């Protein structure tokens, strides 16, 4: 027998700490009285649809922004009750300092419903705070994009799921699936109710969203998470508590202005989510690509397929004013899957490393072969970071170029001596605070200080220029159309006279210098000319998707020849 849900309404209204009248349960769920009074009279589909109409749409909080974003929200929503300067980590069940957000030694933003299961990168579901939690970076890597299920058998499960995880966690790899992950018992119900919310909230009717489903037949390519029978079990064994209710209320009053109805009315779960047959599951089709799930979930920092030497990539432009942008010239071939890291963190010296002073890191991942001489551009706010068809950008931490001066360091990652350790393989450095890099830094460093890595000293691998909010390389006038060697390009790029700057107007980096493609020749004196070829192939090489009528412009494949 299902308890009378209106009793829950009254209790929640009294206990609700929300200050906004529209977020009190009594007001928020107006119009659902018939469902709440006699839920047995409605089908699962009807209840699901009625709830969706109430909780959708919501105020979307940006994932990363100079305004209030998901980092800011998690600092509040997941705050450690005993220390306002810390957050509680969902899988580790221990606190960590807010200041450690985005660090590989700290914590990141966990998508309870993994991106590879349908959340993606651009829709309102990507930043939905009812499915985001603060999570320890290392333990979160054990979860990755695994679905939730019990994992008690030590003969097949890793228990705990990670050396730093509680003993009541586990994980297991299952061929043909993303594998399973068992979170700590104290939050299993919380996570189950988060998934119940997502499955009701998103039916694919909104732009950049998919129809999210829960089942015992789990399949990432059909956006079906699970395991439903286990989630229903966890929902019962770990019921809603006051902390969960408070968080739900804060999401509504302070951020999204919507609620998770399965926290407010847990009795509805068994009416909407009917346990299905997990024995005769259809074949889950393999993904069309090997694209990782949310790289922030443990895999953002990974050993690169490529290994840069100084000068292999150069910075040729930036905007620290809106729209913030970074433009690079790749001077060596980059295989599909290759990565370029760009950071504005301060380098403190060889024995110290980066300051980790709340700065951020960008990561470009090539989706196709990128030929030497290709220009790639990151533009804040553009889908995939503005990768232009040859790759995508992802970010970690808060990458916000300072208008008062900052530095940019470009590198790849090599394997370090210990597990999880990396070697920084620096390619280029640019500093736009003054005409010289700092030679010594004490303390923690800041965005107005930064040393030049030793690997980049003594050659045309770095540039320090007087401050301008926005700067771009002009290409050395006529030389930009000629065939130059890698060293020739670096000499032009590292000569400050070939740069233009402005303190009030940002440059439009969607219009690529050199048409997005230069010749990088092996020998001096070679010529560079356009090569006729398939238009689609030419567009791929330039990193630009051009209209057909533009194809006869300078945006063509260029080749060195004697």
TrEMBL record:
UniProtKB keywords: Hydrolase, Nuclease, Signal
Signal peptide region: 1-20
SUPFAM superfamilies named among the record's database cross-references: His-Me finger endonucleases
InterPro entries associated with the record: Endonuclease-I (IPR007346), His-Me_finger_sf (IPR044925)
GO MF annotations in UniProt: hydrolase activity; nuclease activity
Highest taxon of the lineage: Eukaryota
PANTHER family documented for this protein: ENDONUCLEASE-1
Name assigned to this protein: Uncharacterized protein
